[in-house]
Amino acid sequence: MEMNQPIGHTPLDGKPEGLLGRPIDRIEGRLKVTGQAPYAYETRELKNPAYGFIVTAGIAAGTIRSIDTQAARTAPGVIHVMTHENVPAQGEKKEQVWPQLAGREVRFYGQPVAFVVAETFEQARAAAGLVTLTYDVAKPKASLRAAMPETYKPKPAQTDPDSALGDFEGAFSAAAVKLDVEYTTPAQIHAQMEPHATIASWEGDRVVLFTANQMLNRGQKSLASVLGLPPENVRLVSRYVGGGFGSKLQALPEATLAALASKVIRRPVKVALTRQQEFHVGTHRTDTIQRIRLGADKDGRLGAIAHESWSAAAEGDQFFETSANVTRSLYAAPNRITRHRIANLNTPIASAMRAPGEAVGQLAFECAMDELAEHLSLDPIELRVRNEPAEDPEKKVPFSVRQLVPCMREGARLFGWDRRQAPASTREGQWMLGMGMSAAARLNPLMPSSAAIRLGPDGILTVRMAMTDIGTGTYTILAQIAGEMLGLPIERIRVELGDTAFPAASGSGGSFGAGSAGSALYVACDELRQTLLKAADLNPEGAVFADGRVASGNRSEALADLAGANGIEAKGEIKPGEMKQKYSQYSFGAHFAEVGVDADTGEIRLRRMLGVFTGGRILNAKTAHSQAIGGMTFGVGAALMEEAAIDPRYGSFVNHDLAEYHVPVHADIPAIDAVFLPELDDKANPLKSKGLGELGICGAGAAVANAVYNATGIRIREYPLTLDKVL
Ligand code: MOS
Questions:
Q1: Whose CA is nearest to atom 4 of ligand 1?
Q2: Which of 446, 54, 448, 442 shows the shortest CA–CA distance to 218?
Q3: Do 313 and 155 meet the contact criterion of CB atoms below 8 Å apart?
Q4: Which tens digit of pLDDT belongs to each residue from 589-609?
Q5: Region annotation Disordered: residue ranges (predicted)?
Q6: What is the pLDDT of residue 175?
Q7: Is the peptide bond before 720 cis (omega within 30 degrees of 0)?
Q8: What is the ipTM score, two decimals?
Q9: 316: left (phi over 0), alpha (psi -120 to 50) or beta
Q10: Domains of the chain
């Protein structure tokens, strides 16, 4: 179905005690914790693999003058050494997937320059160390700040990089209260648990890749382009993924290299990135510089909003951090501009990470709102309430559902917001205490998806989709949707994902996975319901699917009997339609944080945190809660510790491991909770659900930063808020 009109009553409505929404455990959980859910690198389906190791460039810009592989080629166990001199012919770059070893040019530190394949991992790694290169070194451009004069407007991606409404400059200069501030956010790395890994193997002119990937159909198309194959000759398998956070939205060089080398040596090749390689061979979130200007009247009504963002892109790329996009929909003001500019730098490839755009955009904007509230001596919630728009302030269309104000009000009540004091006025021994809040908003996209299901004569329903579960609970919520639709217990649903041999699906990213893939499955189940009713010759009016049976009127049939000896199949498909244009669709929320700041050392400790969210129908209360607090935890990381520090001389990240790149651990997150307010969004999709994956991170760090201000009276505009900046 195409989403062209609001969804009316569905079989999912009015069943509060149903399977859907219940906080059931992840159905693959046992396999995962017992090590029986193989990640890409662990699969045993491809026999006798050789091991690859990537040699990376030690310079950020220049050309390879010579590459000596003699010692590596004759090292123990080595089967093949691939460089730009002997790499097989390749096709075209697609999206952010480049041909590998494609020439002498080096564009960033960590760019693959050779690939060593050996009998064992140790032999490959040892031989990789024997490859010697000489370069003609150029001076790298590796500082966004230094490159500000040459920033330019990137090509529109999904949305125009710029927007303008009314007369911002005029309204801003005439405003009674003005704020003009610059915030910076550093480069950040996904830090997902499972590194990128691929095992590639060929059969004739078809290649299969067991690979760590979030979006299989996208990966299939881009790898096919780079390998010069039709997409149907490329199969990706990714049944279990150990976290993504955006790092696996596209195929990385290890997938291309494994495929190329496997073709040459006619044997499966497996390769994983080391943790250090993750920082440079993999993608990262660019650093940003953001200027925010707010003009308000004395009552705090915004007349002018400007949000400008500068970010860095890799050479030959125009990916940009859409920091200001959410600002277009958040608060009312007649005069407004948003603007995105980029500079191309010799830094590794910048791409999407954990709520691309909103995460760092709200780190800046929601603190600027806090600053404005302070100038106006207004409660930060009250300031936001006064600027609550009646419709989307730029698109001029209604919101599908917008419960930002109820989220803030309920959060304030649950958190004890009324106990918040003036800045720098609450002490507990050496600790200065403070509370902060932030709004949260994350776009809700719907992506094309399809599903195939089959009810077998044993009464087991099998679901197949080229969808992924990156640790978020997709297997489980899909089983819940199918079970709810067909009245089957969860034990009788088999969900098979992670294979491009199955019907194409959205994959996991952009908070669109559950809604998109789930809706395709919903449509397939609806189709199967009709088929079953026909087969049973039952009146669809008032038919009830429950306990493995379908009942209507005074008759009831077992689904297993209706399936017949061959089973019954159905397909479903969902596409975004006009609803995208007719309504502004976001998931909303509000964050509340309390921190203590050591008056002597400046050490910042989170004390407690609460998020109150709305995301339409909640498909599984436990996985939704986990998604939310996971996102909030990353918000704390972004506020207080995460920074991939670029060495501008060498264009490399100096803290390229998890010992030096800090993400929060349990001791950093003493008390954190998330609450969902009831909501159904009938403009979103047939499930009436909206995305939650990235909502938790949006604004979370700003609430922490605003709490630090409230504790200390010191406003830090340079993330992360480390203790040296407090003192
Ligand atoms: Mo997300 S950054 O789209 O995985």
A1: 246
A2: 448
A3: no
A4: 999 999 999 999 999 999 999
A5: 1-21
A6: 98
A7: yes
A8: 0.98
A9: left
A10: 2-37+447-576 (3.30.365.10), 49-139+193-243+248-280 (3.30.365.10), 288-445+582-726 (3.30.365.10)
